[in-house]
Design brief:
By secondary structure, the chain is an alpha+beta fold. Helix content is about 55%, strand content about 5%. Helix 20 runs antiparallel to helix 21.
């Protein structure tokens, strides 16, 4: 074992030992080791699974297990030194990845394995992994002439740097804004949970009163509940102009040029590979066949949703006028929507918080998946973690045999990237020494932390988010594949990867599911029948408006990646998409796109449509449970065996048909959304 804690550590990552100064040397050493391994396998000429693929996968595994914890720390407890170390590695890793992807001798070695006599004796998962690898070689430019290969590598390195800068700017812009409030009247209507957190934040800064930030739980609480319209407008302007040329920090963390350069470079990469635009390149690895199919799918959903969305907005405007609110501004929409929801259903997200204490939600969620999938989940203490809030759990089968593990990091804090996500710490893979490495996941959320002497209390919307991320975690952890490239979510088409996550959300919307995950934090009493019925009745409140918002993001994403040769006028295209599908147009200063990390810094470029695409799959998969029983254990175990266990070993349509008995139908999605087909 190396002196560097990131290299070849036994077991789980030694988080407390990892320092920023370890990151770059570890990457340098492991990249050098990877290069040496490639030279060795090519020199040996043994182009079999054991002679070629297994040693290279071992090196990839070592590199991933070193950089993964460094990247995770950078996302969850970032410091200036860690950010610097992490960013210094990105171009090196990008260059190495491109160099491997463009290695002609290595490509030919894989092709000879594919064409050789031993290929037929490999498992289907091994065969799929080799086919995927050959496809990825071609998508990395292995067939390009040397000058174009060099250009491709330089572009890839620059893209890696730019996407990281986009994220850094967004984090800095979010954390740079704050509002110190000493007059309680200014905060009239803001829920107690948010006020307690803001008071804790003020004390941290040695201030009296309250300190508001743009962390999403705080922002959302103010937008939905503050009676102070000026405060709502101030925070709306700050939030929707983050990292842009507008707003209180105009130009300081501006992502404008970064976004343009990202689009330009993506287009150049696609052109180098012979695609007409980046959208085409993106779809080369997805379920959807072409851009026309995706655009048709999105526009059809928009057409079916828009009439109802227009009615929803008109109902909101009428209600606001009746309350003497005047014309609705964008910073009024969330506030009056909450008031309308309360008036119509006598229910509010804040009112439900006491019945969704984090501990009860977590234990109830575990009980649901244990029942459905035949697993057991138990907390393990004494594991090295990156923050005191973080917990660690083991997953076992019904006989008690250990299958997987996961970290759970629930609460927002300074230095932690916003949003919620699942990431893999390590995958299930049969190692070169014959040992079976078990999967380990990171599950990260940004809920309001316990404050004012109360435990963490979640809104129902946050409960749904937790179930969503846990669905991704189950996909990673319940895989039965032993080939790294198709284990868990690896090798799964991006527009199918949201199937298990969106599928799990459904149990938050059933009477049986709510019985498991709700209980008053003081008394333990279950969610009263009348509240539960009102919550379920309110499920589709403004669902068509929500649908159009997601379709707006998806259409915008696909258009900027397919039009104007990578020189898209981002604002103009967004304005055009809004004119086509949005029922309420945001103000001119709104710069939503400057914080759209999913497509500018995540894996969703020309793929944001995947959420809606996979929602068709997930709604239809769940409709089988509606037919056969919400907790039908046979159906649950079949979903585990035919979807979760398979990972990326087969095409997603094949897996879906195997589980559902037919191709997917859009009707369950429209029905679950309360939208008439």
């Amino acid at each position: 074992m190396s002196d560097n804690p990131l290299i070849d550590y036994p077991g789980l990552p030694p988080f407390s030992a990892i320092k920023p100064e370890h990151v770059e040397p570890a990457m340098d050493a492991l990249i050098a080791s990877g290069r040496a391994c490639i030279e060795q396998v090519l020199a040996n000429g043994d182009f079999t699974w054991d002679g070629l693929v297994a040693p290279l996968e071992r090196e990839d595994e070592r590199l991933g297990k070193a950089f993964g914890p460094a990247g995770h720390l950078n996302a969850t407890c970032q410091t200036d030194a860690l950010r610097q170390a992490y960013n210094a590695c990105l171009p090196k890793l990008s260059d190495y990845s491109t160099e491997v992807g463009q290695n002609v001798a290595l490509y030919q070695a894989y092709q000879s394995l594919r064409d050789g006599d031993t290929f037929a004796s490999l498992t289907p998962a091994q065969q799929k992994d080799i086919d995927n690898t050959l496809r990825d070689f071609r998508l990395s430019g292995v067939s390009l002439p040397d000058d174009k290969k060099q250009q491709y590598m330089e572009n890839a390195s620059r893209l890696s740097e730019l996407t990281s800068r986009f994220s850094d700017n967004l984090l800095d812009a979010t954390q740079s804004w704050g509002k110190h409030v000493t007059d309680a009247d200014v905060l009239a209507g803001v829920p107690e949970t948010a006020l307690a957190g803001a008071a804790d934040k003020a004390r941290e800064k040695e201030l009296e009163g309250w300190y508001l930030t743009l962390d999403f739980p705080v922002y959302y609480a103010v937008m939905c509940h503050s009676q102070n319209r000026e405060l709502r407008e101030e925070m709306y302007r700050a939030y929707t102009t983050r990292a842009s040329d507008q707003g209180p920090d105009a130009g300081k963390y501006d992502n404008s040029q970064i976004m343009q350069e990202i689009l330009s470079l993506r287009h150049k990469q696609a052109e180098l590979l012979g695609f007409s635009h980046y959208g085409e390149k993106s779809l080369a690895t997805k379920m959807a066949s072409d851009v026309e199919q995706v655009m048709g799918f999105l526009k059809d959903l928009a057409k079916k949703s828009r009439p109802q969305a227009e009615k929803e907005l008109e109902a909101l405007r009428t209600f606001a006028r009746e309350q003497c609110a005047g014309d609705l501004a964008p910073w009024d929409v969330a506030f009056w929507s909450e008031r309308l929801r309360e008036a119509r259903y006598d229910i509010s997200e804040e009112e439900l918080r006491p019945w969704f204490p984090a501990e009860k939600v977590i234990s109830g969620m575990f009980a649901i998946v244990e029942k459905l999938f035949g697993i057991r989940i138990a907390q393990r203490d004494g594991v090295d973690v990156w923050h005191p809030d973080v917990r660690f759990y083991d997953v076992s089968d019904e006989q008690g045999a250990h299958m997987a593990s996961f970290y759970l990091d629930m609460y927002a804090r300074s230095g932690k990237r916003g949003g919620a996500w699942m990431d893999d710490c390590q995958g299930r893979v049969r190692l070169i020494d014959g040992q079976l490495q078990k999967p380990v996941a990171y599950l990260t959320c940004n809920f309001a932390p316990p404050a004012g002497g109360k435990p963490g209390l979640l809104t129902h919307d946050e409960v749904v988010t937790l179930f969503h991320e846990f669905g991704h975690g189950l996909h990673h952890m319940l895989t039965e594949q032993e080939v790294g490239g198709v284990s868990g979510i690896n090798g799964v088409a991006w527009d199918a990867v949201e199937l298990p996550s969106q599928f799990m959300e459904n149990w938050c919307w059933t009477e049986e599911g709510l019985a498991h995950i709700s209980g008053h934090y003081e008394t333990g009493e279950p969610l009263p029948d009348d509240k539960r019925e009102r919550l379920l009745a309110a499920r589709n409140f403004q669902s068509a408006m929500g649908m159009l918002r997601q379709l707006e993001f998806s259409l915008f994403d696909m258009r900027i990646h397919t039009e104007q040769d990578g020189n898209a006028d981002i604002q103009k295209i967004l304005d055009e998409v809004r004119a086509e599908v949005a029922v309420m147009i945001p103000p001119d200063f709104n710069r939503f796109q400057h914080s759209f990390g999913h497509i500018f810094a995540g894996g969703y470029a020309a793929g944001y449509y995947s959420y809606k695409w996979a929602e068709v799959l997930s709604a239809d998969a769940f409709s089988r449970f509606e037919e056969e029983g919400i907790f039908n254990t046979d159906t649950g175990r079949e979903f585990r065996a035919k979807i979760l266990a398979q990972g990326g070993s087969k095409e997603p349509m094949e897996l879906f048909i195997d589980f559902r008995g037919r191709e997917p139908d859009v009707e369950p999605l429209l029905r679950h959304s309360g939208i008439a087909a």
